[in-house]
Amino acid sequence: MNDTPQAMTIAGTDSSGGAGMTADLNTFSAQGVYGANIVVSVTAQNTCGVQKVQMITPDMIMAQLSAVADDLKIRAVKTGMLGDTATVETVAKAMTKFNFGPLILDPVMVAKGGAQLLTDEAVSAVKTLLMPLVTLVTPNLPEAEVLTHLSIKTTDDIMLAAQQLQTLGAKNVLLKGGHGDAPIVLDYILLADGRHFWLRTKRFNTARTHGTGDTISAAITAQLALGHDLETAIIAAKTYVDATIRDGILVGHRYGPLNHLA
Ligand code: PLP
Question: Which GO terms describe its biological process (predicted)?
Answer without folding.
Answer: thiamine biosynthetic process
